[in-house]
Amino acid sequence: MELKNNFIHHVYFWLKNPESKEDLQQLIKGLDELAQVSEIKWYHIGIPAPTDREVIDNTYAVSWLNVFETAADQDAYQVHPMHLKFIHDCSKLWSKVKVYDSIQY
Questions:
Q1: C-alpha span between 76 and 79 (Å, rounded)
Q2: How confident is the model over 57-71, as pLDDT tens digits?
Q3: In Å, how far from its chain's centre is CA 67?
């Protein structure tokens, strides 16, 4: 797979109740539904890998990686009704969110 000239949007979620399997599953279900937004070219929903090195931050609960063809597609996603519904329905689950956006160097 080639990811040249795409807009990468990577979101990390920390749960308010990190031990809650129900909250984890609800967040993942919400992301699965959100993945249907047509502007998303490719996505990945992940949990921390069982790796242990000093440079790794595995304190998050779920990562959400999206690939968009353009920054304009990502902008459209931000205001898409499905994205706004996801935030409304799931924001009660997380205590912290970090977003890393990147473009081709």
A1: 6
A2: 999 999 999 999 999
A3: 10
**What is the edge-to-edge ordering of all strands in the sheet holding 62-68?**
42-46, 62-68, 7-15, 94-102
Taking residue 34's Cβ as centre, other Cβ atoms within 10 Å add up to: 22
- DSSP bridge partners of 42: 67
Cβ neighbors of 73 (< 8 A, separation 6 or more) are: 7, 39, 41
Going by their DSSP bridges, the two strands 7-15 and 62-68 should be labelled as: antiparallel
pTM: 0.92
Tens digit of pLDDT for each residue in 23-53? 999 999 999 999 999 999 999 999 999 999 9
Domains of the chain plus CATH, in order, are 10-50+57-64+93-105 (3.30.70.100)
